[in-house]
Amino acid sequence: MSDHHEPKKGKNIDFMSSPSLQKAVKKSKRKQTIKYVIITILTTSILLTIVFMGSQYILTKRIQDQDYLYNSVHGANISDGGTSYNYNLFSITAETTYRKTIGDRSILWDKMTERVPLFGRIETLERGSGMTEVNSLNEEAKRYVRYNDFNNERKIDFYYPGLSYDYLPHELDTAVKLDDNKLIEVALSFKEPMTILEATKQLGQENVNWLWVDTSSVAQMKRMEETLDSDSLKTKGGGGAFGFEVTPEFPYSEENGDGFISMLEQLRNKGLHKSSINEALKGIKENTLATKGKIRLNGAVVTGTAAELKRFQKLKFIRASVLGATIDKY
Protein backbone atom coordinates (compact mmCIF):
# COMPACT_ATOMS: atom_id res chain seq x y z
CA MET A 1 0.00 0.00 0.00
CA SER A 2 1.53 3.14 -1.16
CA ASP A 3 1.64 6.19 0.93
CA HIS A 4 -0.16 9.22 -0.52
CA HIS A 5 1.44 12.51 0.39
CA GLU A 6 -0.34 15.83 -0.13
CA PRO A 7 1.86 18.22 -2.21
CA LYS A 8 3.09 21.20 -0.25
CA LYS A 9 1.49 24.49 -1.26
CA GLY A 10 4.08 27.01 -2.48
CA LYS A 11 4.26 30.30 -0.65
CA ASN A 12 3.21 33.41 -2.71
CA ILE A 13 5.92 36.10 -2.47
CA ASP A 14 4.42 39.64 -2.19
CA PHE A 15 6.91 41.76 -4.12
CA MET A 16 4.66 44.85 -4.02
CA SER A 17 4.86 45.11 -0.30
CA SER A 18 8.59 45.10 -0.40
CA PRO A 19 9.90 48.32 1.23
CA SER A 20 12.61 48.74 -1.37
CA LEU A 21 10.15 48.39 -4.24
CA GLN A 22 7.70 50.80 -2.64
CA LYS A 23 10.49 53.29 -2.26
CA ALA A 24 11.51 52.87 -5.89
CA VAL A 25 7.90 53.30 -7.11
CA LYS A 26 7.44 56.47 -5.07
CA LYS A 27 10.69 57.88 -6.39
CA SER A 28 9.66 57.07 -9.96
CA LYS A 29 6.27 58.71 -9.50
CA ARG A 30 7.87 61.77 -8.00
CA LYS A 31 10.26 62.09 -10.94
CA GLN A 32 7.39 61.64 -13.37
CA THR A 33 5.32 64.30 -11.59
CA ILE A 34 8.24 66.75 -11.57
CA LYS A 35 8.82 66.02 -15.25
CA TYR A 36 5.17 66.74 -16.09
CA VAL A 37 5.20 69.92 -14.00
CA ILE A 38 8.35 71.17 -15.73
CA ILE A 39 6.93 70.34 -19.17
CA THR A 40 3.64 72.05 -18.29
CA ILE A 41 5.42 75.15 -16.98
CA LEU A 42 7.69 75.36 -20.03
CA THR A 43 4.81 74.79 -22.45
CA THR A 44 2.61 77.33 -20.67
CA SER A 45 5.46 79.85 -20.54
CA ILE A 46 6.18 79.44 -24.24
CA LEU A 47 2.49 79.74 -25.15
CA LEU A 48 2.02 82.80 -22.93
CA THR A 49 5.14 84.38 -24.41
CA ILE A 50 3.86 83.73 -27.92
CA VAL A 51 0.41 85.09 -27.01
CA PHE A 52 1.88 88.15 -25.26
CA MET A 53 4.38 88.96 -28.03
CA GLY A 54 1.76 88.36 -30.71
CA SER A 55 -0.74 90.52 -28.85
CA GLN A 56 1.76 93.34 -28.36
CA TYR A 57 2.81 93.14 -32.02
CA ILE A 58 -0.79 93.39 -33.25
CA LEU A 59 -1.64 96.19 -30.80
CA THR A 60 1.50 98.13 -31.73
CA LYS A 61 0.67 97.66 -35.40
CA ARG A 62 -2.87 98.94 -34.76
CA ILE A 63 -1.44 102.03 -33.07
CA GLN A 64 0.96 102.63 -35.95
CA ASP A 65 -1.89 102.22 -38.41
CA GLN A 66 -3.92 104.87 -36.62
CA ASP A 67 -3.93 108.14 -38.50
CA TYR A 68 -2.71 110.35 -35.68
CA LEU A 69 -1.15 112.51 -38.39
CA TYR A 70 -4.74 113.22 -39.40
CA ASN A 71 -4.66 116.02 -36.82
CA SER A 72 -2.00 117.81 -38.87
CA VAL A 73 -4.46 118.30 -41.75
CA HIS A 74 -7.76 118.45 -39.87
CA GLY A 75 -9.08 120.67 -37.08
CA ALA A 76 -8.72 124.46 -37.22
CA ASN A 77 -5.82 125.67 -35.08
CA ILE A 78 -5.86 122.37 -33.16
CA SER A 79 -2.64 120.39 -32.78
CA ASP A 80 -1.78 117.04 -31.23
CA GLY A 81 -0.30 117.53 -27.77
CA GLY A 82 0.96 113.95 -27.43
CA THR A 83 -0.36 110.50 -26.53
CA SER A 84 0.37 108.22 -23.57
CA TYR A 85 -0.30 104.46 -23.71
CA ASN A 86 -1.29 101.95 -21.04
CA TYR A 87 -0.68 98.41 -22.33
CA ASN A 88 -2.83 95.45 -21.28
CA LEU A 89 -2.69 91.90 -22.61
CA PHE A 90 -5.50 92.32 -25.13
CA SER A 91 -5.91 96.10 -25.39
CA ILE A 92 -4.24 99.48 -25.08
CA THR A 93 -5.70 102.56 -23.43
CA ALA A 94 -4.51 105.69 -25.25
CA GLU A 95 -4.89 109.18 -23.79
CA THR A 96 -4.32 112.01 -26.27
CA THR A 97 -4.25 115.73 -25.53
CA TYR A 98 -4.96 118.52 -28.01
CA ARG A 99 -3.79 122.11 -27.85
CA LYS A 100 -4.50 125.48 -29.46
CA THR A 101 -1.93 128.18 -30.13
CA ILE A 102 -3.17 131.69 -29.41
CA GLY A 103 -0.60 134.41 -29.92
CA ASP A 104 2.57 133.23 -28.21
CA ARG A 105 0.68 130.97 -25.80
CA SER A 106 -0.50 127.37 -26.05
CA ILE A 107 -3.60 126.21 -24.19
CA LEU A 108 -4.99 122.74 -23.50
CA TRP A 109 -8.03 122.38 -25.75
CA ASP A 110 -9.19 118.80 -25.42
CA LYS A 111 -8.35 115.37 -23.99
CA MET A 112 -9.52 112.06 -25.41
CA THR A 113 -9.23 108.55 -23.95
CA GLU A 114 -9.58 105.60 -26.32
CA ARG A 115 -9.49 101.83 -25.92
CA VAL A 116 -7.64 100.07 -28.74
CA PRO A 117 -8.60 96.35 -28.61
CA LEU A 118 -6.68 93.48 -30.15
CA PHE A 119 -9.54 93.06 -32.62
CA GLY A 120 -12.62 95.11 -33.34
CA ARG A 121 -13.48 98.79 -33.34
CA ILE A 122 -11.60 101.40 -31.36
CA GLU A 123 -13.80 102.76 -28.59
CA THR A 124 -13.77 106.34 -27.34
CA LEU A 125 -14.08 106.12 -23.55
CA GLU A 126 -14.01 109.81 -22.70
CA ARG A 127 -13.67 113.17 -24.42
CA GLY A 128 -13.01 116.34 -22.47
CA SER A 129 -14.83 118.65 -24.87
CA GLY A 130 -17.92 116.44 -24.67
CA MET A 131 -19.18 113.41 -26.57
CA THR A 132 -22.26 115.33 -27.72
CA GLU A 133 -22.73 118.99 -28.51
CA VAL A 134 -25.60 121.22 -27.47
CA ASN A 135 -25.96 124.50 -29.37
CA SER A 136 -28.01 127.44 -28.19
CA LEU A 137 -28.97 130.64 -29.97
CA ASN A 138 -27.01 133.59 -28.63
CA GLU A 139 -29.23 136.65 -28.92
CA GLU A 140 -26.34 139.10 -28.68
CA ALA A 141 -24.24 137.30 -31.30
CA LYS A 142 -27.34 136.62 -33.47
CA ARG A 143 -26.13 133.09 -34.17
CA TYR A 144 -25.67 129.68 -32.56
CA VAL A 145 -22.53 129.88 -30.44
CA ARG A 146 -20.77 126.65 -29.52
CA TYR A 147 -18.65 126.15 -26.40
CA ASN A 148 -15.96 123.63 -25.50
CA ASP A 149 -17.10 121.70 -22.39
CA PHE A 150 -13.49 121.04 -21.42
CA ASN A 151 -12.46 124.67 -20.86
CA ASN A 152 -15.66 126.61 -21.60
CA GLU A 153 -14.01 128.53 -24.45
CA ARG A 154 -15.87 129.47 -27.62
CA LYS A 155 -15.50 127.23 -30.67
CA ILE A 156 -14.96 128.77 -34.08
CA ASP A 157 -17.07 128.37 -37.21
CA PHE A 158 -16.42 129.17 -40.86
CA TYR A 159 -18.84 130.49 -43.49
CA TYR A 160 -18.52 129.09 -47.00
CA PRO A 161 -17.97 131.44 -49.91
CA GLY A 162 -20.85 131.15 -52.36
CA LEU A 163 -23.52 129.98 -49.89
CA SER A 164 -26.33 132.30 -48.86
CA TYR A 165 -26.83 133.11 -45.18
CA ASP A 166 -29.46 135.04 -43.27
CA TYR A 167 -26.80 136.64 -41.10
CA LEU A 168 -23.03 136.98 -41.41
CA PRO A 169 -21.19 137.71 -38.13
CA HIS A 170 -18.40 140.28 -37.96
CA GLU A 171 -17.04 139.48 -34.53
CA LEU A 172 -13.58 140.79 -35.40
CA ASP A 173 -15.11 144.17 -34.55
CA THR A 174 -15.73 142.87 -31.03
CA ALA A 175 -12.30 141.24 -30.79
CA VAL A 176 -10.39 144.47 -31.45
CA LYS A 177 -12.22 146.14 -28.54
CA LEU A 178 -11.20 143.56 -25.95
CA ASP A 179 -8.69 144.20 -23.19
CA ASP A 180 -5.09 144.66 -24.33
CA ASN A 181 -4.13 141.88 -21.91
CA LYS A 182 -6.14 139.35 -23.93
CA LEU A 183 -4.85 137.00 -26.59
CA ILE A 184 -7.67 136.36 -29.05
CA GLU A 185 -8.54 133.74 -31.66
CA VAL A 186 -10.67 134.74 -34.66
CA ALA A 187 -11.84 132.64 -37.62
CA LEU A 188 -11.94 134.57 -40.90
CA SER A 189 -14.06 133.43 -43.85
CA PHE A 190 -13.28 134.72 -47.34
CA LYS A 191 -15.78 136.07 -49.88
CA GLU A 192 -14.09 134.06 -52.62
CA PRO A 193 -11.57 131.19 -52.51
CA MET A 194 -7.96 132.26 -53.10
CA THR A 195 -4.70 130.47 -53.77
CA ILE A 196 -1.89 130.42 -51.22
CA LEU A 197 0.08 132.89 -53.32
CA GLU A 198 -2.87 135.27 -53.32
CA ALA A 199 -3.26 134.83 -49.55
CA THR A 200 0.39 135.66 -48.88
CA LYS A 201 -0.13 138.97 -50.72
CA GLN A 202 -3.57 139.91 -49.40
CA LEU A 203 -3.75 138.27 -45.97
CA GLY A 204 -0.07 138.47 -45.12
CA GLN A 205 1.94 136.32 -42.74
CA GLU A 206 1.74 138.01 -39.35
CA ASN A 207 -0.66 136.57 -36.75
CA VAL A 208 -1.87 133.87 -39.15
CA ASN A 209 -2.03 130.49 -37.39
CA TRP A 210 -4.01 128.20 -39.68
CA LEU A 211 -5.45 128.13 -43.22
CA TRP A 212 -8.78 126.56 -44.20
CA VAL A 213 -8.50 124.58 -47.45
CA ASP A 214 -11.40 124.38 -49.91
CA THR A 215 -12.30 120.68 -50.12
CA SER A 216 -15.99 120.94 -51.07
CA SER A 217 -17.08 119.93 -54.55
CA VAL A 218 -19.61 121.85 -56.63
CA ALA A 219 -22.17 119.10 -56.00
CA GLN A 220 -21.69 119.36 -52.22
CA MET A 221 -22.06 123.14 -52.29
CA LYS A 222 -25.21 122.86 -54.39
CA ARG A 223 -26.67 120.24 -52.04
CA MET A 224 -26.00 122.43 -48.98
CA GLU A 225 -27.56 125.47 -50.66
CA GLU A 226 -30.69 123.61 -51.73
CA THR A 227 -31.32 121.34 -48.74
CA LEU A 228 -30.06 123.20 -45.67
CA ASP A 229 -32.28 126.07 -44.54
CA SER A 230 -30.49 127.10 -41.34
CA ASP A 231 -27.30 129.14 -41.08
CA SER A 232 -26.06 126.88 -38.28
CA LEU A 233 -26.28 123.86 -40.58
CA LYS A 234 -24.42 125.58 -43.41
CA THR A 235 -21.36 126.63 -41.39
CA LYS A 236 -18.22 124.54 -41.11
CA GLY A 237 -17.20 123.89 -37.50
CA GLY A 238 -13.53 124.55 -36.90
CA GLY A 239 -13.00 121.04 -35.51
CA GLY A 240 -14.20 119.50 -38.77
CA ALA A 241 -12.36 121.70 -41.25
CA PHE A 242 -9.42 120.60 -43.40
CA GLY A 243 -6.35 122.81 -43.50
CA PHE A 244 -2.86 123.25 -42.12
CA GLU A 245 -0.94 125.12 -39.47
CA VAL A 246 1.38 128.00 -40.31
CA THR A 247 3.90 129.77 -38.09
CA PRO A 248 5.74 133.11 -38.22
CA GLU A 249 9.07 131.25 -38.18
CA PHE A 250 8.26 129.47 -41.44
CA PRO A 251 6.27 131.73 -43.80
CA TYR A 252 3.67 129.79 -45.74
CA SER A 253 3.98 129.36 -49.49
CA GLU A 254 2.80 127.06 -52.28
CA GLU A 255 5.07 124.37 -50.79
CA ASN A 256 2.65 124.13 -47.86
CA GLY A 257 -0.09 123.24 -50.31
CA ASP A 258 2.02 120.50 -51.88
CA GLY A 259 2.84 119.14 -48.44
CA PHE A 260 -0.83 119.22 -47.44
CA ILE A 261 -1.87 117.15 -50.46
CA SER A 262 1.04 114.73 -49.92
CA MET A 263 -0.10 114.17 -46.33
CA LEU A 264 -3.66 113.48 -47.46
CA GLU A 265 -2.34 111.02 -50.05
CA GLN A 266 -0.34 109.29 -47.33
CA LEU A 267 -3.37 108.99 -45.05
CA ARG A 268 -6.03 108.16 -47.63
CA ASN A 269 -5.91 104.39 -47.01
CA LYS A 270 -5.30 104.42 -43.26
CA GLY A 271 -7.37 104.56 -40.11
CA LEU A 272 -10.94 105.58 -39.51
CA HIS A 273 -10.99 108.63 -41.76
CA LYS A 274 -10.38 107.10 -45.18
CA SER A 275 -13.78 108.14 -46.47
CA SER A 276 -13.53 111.81 -45.45
CA ILE A 277 -9.95 112.08 -46.74
CA ASN A 278 -10.83 110.60 -50.11
CA GLU A 279 -13.84 112.93 -50.30
CA ALA A 280 -11.54 115.88 -49.53
CA LEU A 281 -9.04 114.82 -52.20
CA LYS A 282 -11.87 114.49 -54.69
CA GLY A 283 -13.04 118.03 -53.90
CA ILE A 284 -9.51 119.43 -54.10
CA LYS A 285 -8.94 117.79 -57.48
CA GLU A 286 -12.11 119.37 -58.83
CA ASN A 287 -11.41 122.80 -57.30
CA THR A 288 -7.84 123.00 -58.56
CA LEU A 289 -8.69 122.49 -62.22
CA ALA A 290 -9.00 126.27 -62.57
CA THR A 291 -5.81 127.01 -60.61
CA LYS A 292 -3.42 124.62 -62.37
CA GLY A 293 -3.28 122.24 -59.42
CA LYS A 294 -2.85 124.90 -56.73
CA ILE A 295 -5.11 124.44 -53.70
CA ARG A 296 -7.65 127.09 -52.78
CA LEU A 297 -8.24 128.64 -49.36
CA ASN A 298 -11.66 129.52 -47.95
CA GLY A 299 -10.52 131.14 -44.73
CA ALA A 300 -7.96 131.44 -41.97
CA VAL A 301 -7.51 131.48 -38.19
CA VAL A 302 -5.69 134.52 -36.86
CA THR A 303 -4.61 135.14 -33.26
CA GLY A 304 -3.00 137.89 -31.26
CA THR A 305 -3.82 140.94 -29.16
CA ALA A 306 -6.62 143.33 -30.04
CA ALA A 307 -4.07 145.79 -31.45
CA GLU A 308 -2.45 143.09 -33.61
CA LEU A 309 -5.79 141.98 -35.06
CA LYS A 310 -6.95 145.45 -36.09
CA ARG A 311 -5.22 145.25 -39.47
CA PHE A 312 -7.57 142.45 -40.55
CA GLN A 313 -10.55 144.82 -40.24
CA LYS A 314 -9.36 146.63 -43.36
CA LEU A 315 -9.36 143.54 -45.57
CA LYS A 316 -12.31 143.77 -47.98
CA PHE A 317 -12.18 140.11 -49.00
CA ILE A 318 -13.25 138.90 -45.53
CA ARG A 319 -16.87 137.79 -45.61
CA ALA A 320 -17.40 136.84 -41.97
CA SER A 321 -15.44 136.61 -38.73
CA VAL A 322 -16.13 134.52 -35.62
CA LEU A 323 -14.61 135.05 -32.18
CA GLY A 324 -13.00 131.95 -30.70
CA ALA A 325 -10.97 131.25 -27.57
CA THR A 326 -9.50 134.08 -25.50
CA ILE A 327 -6.87 133.87 -22.77
CA ASP A 328 -4.97 136.30 -20.58
CA LYS A 329 -1.60 137.28 -21.98
CA TYR A 330 -0.08 137.56 -18.50
Roughly how many Å is the radius of gyration? 35 Å
Q: How many strand segments?
A: 13
User: Roughly what is the average pLDDT, rounded to an integer?
Assistant: 87
**H/E series:** HEEEEEEEHEHEHHEEHHEHE
Reconstruct the topology from this structure:
Layout: H1 19-65, E1 78-87, E2 91-102, E3 105-117, E4 123-127, E5 136-138, E6 143-145, E7 157-159, H2 172-175, E8 182-195, H3 196-202, E9 208-213, H4 218-227, H5 231-234, E10 235-237, E11 243-245, H6 254-267, H7 274-287, E12 296-304, H8 306-309, E13 318-328
Antiparallel strand pairs: 1-2, 2-3, 3-4, 5-6, 7-10, 8-12, 8-13, 9-11, 9-12
Helix pairs in contact: 6-7
Structure overview:
The structure is a single chain. With 330 residues, the chain is α+β, with helices and mostly antiparallel strands. Among the domains are: 23-58; 144-328, no CATH class. The chain is 32% helix and 29% strand. The protein has 8 helices and 13 strands. The strands form 4 sheets. Strands 11-9-12-8-13 form a 5-stranded antiparallel beta sheet. Strands 1-2-3-4 form a 4-stranded antiparallel beta sheet. Strand 2 and strand 3 (105-117) form a beta hairpin. Helix 6 packs antiparallel against helix 7. The longest helix is centred in the N-terminal third of the chain and has 47 residues, at 19-65.
In short:
With 330 residues, the protein is an alpha+beta fold. It has helices spanning 19-65, 172-175, 196-202, 218-227, 231-234, 254-267, 274-287, 306-309; strands at residues 78-87, 91-102, 105-117, 123-127, 136-138, 143-145, 157-159, 182-195, 208-213, 235-237, 243-245, 296-304, 318-328.
